[in-house]
Amino acid sequence: MSEISMTGGEALVKCLENAGVKYIFGLSGGAALPMFDALVGSKVKLILVRHEQGAAHMADGFARATGRPGVVLVTSGPGATNTITGILTAHMDSVPMIVLTGQTISSMIGKDAFQEADVFGTTMPVVKHSYLVKATNDIPRIIREAFHIASTGRPGPVLIDIPKDYSSGAFTGELFPEMDLPGYHPGNGDPDEAQVLAIATALNKSRRPLILAGHGALQADAAEALLALAEKLKAPVTSTLLGKGVFPESHPLALGMLGMHGTAYANKAVVECDLIMSVGSRYDDRIIGKASMFCREAVRIHIDIDKSEFGRMIKCDHYCQGDARKVLEQLLPLVGELKTESWLETLDGYKKRYPLGYKLRGGLKMQHILDTLSDMTKGEAIIVTDVGQHQMWAAQFCKTEIPHTWLSSGGAGTMGYGLPAGIGAALGNPKRQVWVVCGDGGFQMTMCELATAAVNQIPVKVLVLNNRYLGMVRQWQTLFYDDRKSGVDLEGNPDFAKLVECYPGGKGFTLKRAADIRKVLQRAMDYNEGPCVIDAIVEKTDNLFPMIPPGAAVEDMIIDEPKSNRKLEKPTGST
Amino acid sequence: MNDIMIHTISVYVANRPGVLARIAQVFARRSFNIDSLVVSPSSDGRYSRMTIAAQGSAEGLDQIILQLGKLVDVMRCVDHAMDTSVIREMALIKLRVDPVQRTEALQICEHFAGKTVDMTETSMIIMMNGNSEKLDACINMLRKFDLVELVRTGKVVMARGDGGT
Known about the structure:
The complex is a heterodimer of chains A (about 575) and B (about 160).
Chain A: E1 6-7, H1 8-18, E2 23-27, H2 33-39, E3 45-48, H3 52-66, E4 70-74, H4 78-81, H5 84-92, E5 97-103, H6 119-122, E6 129-132, H7 139-151, E7 157-163, H8 164-168, E8 170-171, H9 193-205, E9 209-213, H10 215-219, H11 223-233, E10 237-239, E11 254-257, H12 264-272, E12 275-279, H13 285-288, E13 299-304, E14 318-321, H14 324-331, H15 341-353, H16 366-377, E15 382-385, H17 389-397, E16 406-407, H18 418-428, E17 434-439, H19 440-446, H20 450-455, E18 461-466, H21 471-480, H22 496-500, E19 507-511, H23 517-526, E20 532-537
Parallel strand pairs in A: 2-3, 2-4, 4-5, 5-7, 6-7, 9-10, 9-12, 10-11, 12-13, 13-14, 15-16, 15-17, 17-18, 18-20, 19-20
Antiparallel strand pairs in A: 1-8
Helix pairs in contact in A: 1-2, 1-7, 3-5, 3-18, 11-14, 12-15, 16-17, 16-23
Chain B: E1 4-14, H1 19-29, E2 34-41, E3 47-57, H2 58-70, E4 74-80, E5 85-96, H3 99-111, E6 115-119, E7 123-130, H4 132-142, E8 146-152, E9 156-159
Antiparallel strand pairs in B: 1-3, 1-4, 2-3, 5-7, 5-8, 5-9, 6-7
């Protein structure tokens, strides 16, 4: 029993403090008043956003940079629905997040009260779990359960909808109650020994193995175990977009990212391997291309914490449910060095023959800037991307070395993710420089959060690769729709360098010439008083390659720009 | 395409609001039509038992069961094969029959071990228990009369012997 009387909102904030929450990302409103009131004088620092979508992405960025759940607090109705894009983004990429939404008083629920929305119902398909609070005294138990659910097993977002009468009502309950989750069994991630043994046996027979590392490996802190296993086996490692950072890309066994816009050599490895072992990836459609053709001659292995992913996209020969780190650690003593010399030679040949490259003539190239950025940051900075061409080029050219330094919206492909996620990452890991790489399209979706960065003096460095187009869509229209451009011209863009200087402490740079890349990037690196934006005026119509057309087999990868006049078949796959 | 089969799935869930919506959503997202659904509190009132009959490919159904199993409110979820479980349902069938037709309707009812639970000069209600195939056969026979209304409870299922449902 609490000695001093407190409200439900105060109990909630107490629980957040006890859970070690440092920041809460949010925007107030009527139904959230008691909770915001409880934040006054609290150890939890409120980061006031300018739009609730930004709050959700910030919490997401915080979570990806730290491995700890990010927390969002918004009001009812539109405040809550504005977070849905951010919740979807976190859900698709298995990011731990707690979303607290105000709700109208319980007696008014279902009566179309002012700012009422059925948030519990609306968000159901995009959360790992959700609650509608039914009593003030339930709040601590629900908070505790929410953190447990969000961060164990396969992580994900948990939403708690809190009617105002419960957040303002008198709290008389227990602040450290027991959890009541009879239906939730995330387990401890220990794999089945027989399955591990079967995988080890398959690995020991392989001559052309390929390890595919995904977000699950990163979240399970499996980087060390992965490195040890790959080096012992002498097996090459490719990673998914979200797996970047789990294996150092400077390592001779690293192949970089695979998939639709992956490196040619990673995709060649997929085509020619005799065994593929996915660790914490879900074999999603960006990776496998045409499912029936994917590694059809190879032994296929799937290691995942979530058994519902098994057989969902492709059938595998071996499945193993478990924590990626534990599985890899148990595999290590069971495997020996494989005879992979000629396989690694073949792959090195591909690396030399099909390197990532770009032409220096013509206008300023995104690739050139990103290549230089990677060279200057040396894998030490946190790179946060938005979604589009720049994202894929960043994935290709920005080499990652350390886990939790590469943040990108993968599954959902959410434009507007970059800046707010970068702010969250900077708060979560203030020791590292944070670079937000975005396009002019995505940046404008959430650029109101420059105010949040300015007010909190967050030295996030925003590199806007500005081609005045929605470049990825324009590329598809060029390749697959006879260059009939529809709804892709971003005429009317502001001067982004000027724009950021409207904010206190904001600094803008304009980059137009290739010769200035290094100088301008350095000036941005040296500016730490607040957010800065580099408006990089890049070539308008550059196309991104390699590319596996959607629905096509990995074998059908287009490595370089097709000769002009060669029209490509309309893709058959999804987007 | 896979063969379309009818599956009877038993889901043991937390007895609280919103749970049915979560479960229905898993079926709807994968375009599975729910043929019948029975929900009632179990012997332990904190939990409910749902028996869901649905049609679809075995592969799609495996995914649904895995997805249902992931829901925090779901304790367990089992696809019941016919040979290891008892499946029953009940139907109420209202017929418009005049005294001339009544005898034959009663014969059919008797053959299928049904009971008449209401009778007027012009109508009768037959109550029929059993497995779904028997109910289908009986209803087909009764269609020769003016079948005014048909209400079926949907299947309920219980594993045979010591097996858990």
